[in-house]
Automatic annotation (TrEMBL):
Entry-linked Pfam families: THF_DHG_CYH (PF00763), THF_DHG_CYH_C (PF02882)
Keyword Plastid in annotation: no
CDD domains registered for this protein in UniProt: NAD_bind_m-THF_DH_Cyclohyd (cd01080)
Biological function: Catalyzes the oxidation of 5,10-methylenetetrahydrofolate to 5,10-methenyltetrahydrofolate and then the hydrolysis of 5,10-methenyltetrahydrofolate to 10-formyltetrahydrofolate.
SUPFAM superfamilies: Aminoacid dehydrogenase-like, N-terminal domain, NAD(P)-binding Rossmann-fold domains
Originating organism: Ramlibacter pinisoli
Domain Tetrahydrofolate dehydrogenase/cyclohydrolase NAD(P)-binding: 139-281
EC number: 1.5.1.5, 3.5.4.9
Binding site residues for NADP(+): 165-167
Protein name in the entry: Bifunctional protein FolD
Catalytic function, reaction form: (6R)-5,10-methylene-5,6,7,8-tetrahydrofolate + NADP(+) = (6R)-5,10-methenyltetrahydrofolate + NADPH; (6R)-5,10-methenyltetrahydrofolate + H2O = (6R)-10-formyltetrahydrofolate + H(+)
Quaternary structure, from the entry: Homodimer.
NCBIfam families on file: PRK10792.1, PRK14189.1
């Protein structure tokens, strides 16, 4: 059996079209949804990513401004700028691109963003809202993974989901989202003994480690859904995920590719969150 592909490019296109429609409706009410992206330093990858985010936004009718600051920007100045953006009623979403230069305390910076504008979903208040099921913003990557499961009509109730990775921005929120949909959830990590024993039981595996070949065919139950959050490069410099795609696709029922899987969905969910922030502000 060869797994069916969950096409993140195609799904993100649908989501962006929906965002564009809702954005038009807001604009007709005189409200222009707006995202402020803050980039500190000149890391080339971050420059590419933030440019993508601006283009995605503009294409869907959202307004996005990219503010670039020198790498030696003081924390005091960055926090002051965030407070200004918090207070600006024309700005609905604030995204501070990560990683930040080392002299800046990333948690302090994120906690300074007003939770109502935290479209990345990284603020502790957003994390708390996810834990308790209250309205807030969900981190874009796991949120996008949930949309991928939804797109194939997958009912998580009673299913066993295994998340590999426990980061604050992917693994932990992913587990909570799966739990909210009534899956039985296991979180595996670097301290897990016998990872394969867990993944072989799983109906759904989400690989979010940041290392190649974390999940190979022998670790997957036939027919399982495999979601690959990884973003790595192989020895030829080609973008690849955490999953041995060629092997696992022969065993799994569904699989997400890299590129063209979770990445485009992450970007789409940022647009959804920004629009949602503007809709909430509009009442
Ligand atoms: N505050 C903050 N929020 C973020 O969401 C954030 C961040 N900082 N820092 C960096 C990471 C990385 N990230 C990506 C999202 C989508 C793709 C993406 O669309 N990838 C394409 C491939 C792009 C390529 O070819 O390089 C794909 O998988 O198909 C990549 C990377 C968001 N991040």
């Amino acid at each position: 059996m060869t797994a069916q592909l969950i096409d993140g490019n195609a799904l993100s296109k649908k989501i962006r079209a929906d965002v564009a429609g809702r954005t038009q409706a807001l604009r007709a009410r005189g409200i222009q949804p707006a995202l402020a992206i803050v980039l500190v330093g000149s890391d080339p990858a971050s420059q590419v990513y933030t440019r993508h985010k601006v283009n995605d936004s503009t294409e869907t009718g959202l307004q996005a401004t990219l503010e670039t600051y020198p790498a030696d920007l003081s924390e005091e100045k960055l926090l002051a700028r965030i407070r200004e953006l918090n207070a600006d009623p024309a700005v609905h979403g604030i995204l501070v691109q990560l990683p930040l230069p080392k002299h800046l305390n990333a948690s302090k910076v994120i906690e300074t963003i007003a939770p109502a504008k935290d479209v990345d979903g990284f603020h502790v208040a957003s994390a708390g809202a996810l834990v308790t099921g209250q309205p807030g913003f969900w981190p874009c990557t796991p949120y996008g993974c949930m949309k991928m499961l939804e797109s194939i009509g997958y009912d998580l109730r009673g299913k066993h989901a295994v998340v590999i990775g426990r980061s604050n921005i992917v693994g932990k929120p992913m587990a909570l989202m799966l739990l909210q949909k009534n899956a039985t959830v296991t979180i595996c990590h670097s301290g897990t003994t016998d990872l394969k024993a867990h993944t072989r039981q799983a109906d759904v595996v989400v690989a979010a480690v940041g290392k190649r070949n974390v999940l190979t065919a022998d670790m997957v139950k036939p027919g399982a859904v495999v979601i690959d959050v990884g973003m790595n490069r192989d020895e030829a410099g080609k973008l690849c995920g955490d999953v041995d795609f060629a092997g696992v696709r022969e065993v799994a029922g569904w699989i997400t590719p890299v590129p063209g899987g979770v990445g485009p969905m992450t970007r789409a969910m940022l647009l959804v969150n920004t629009l949602e922030a503007a809709e909430r502000a509009a009442g």
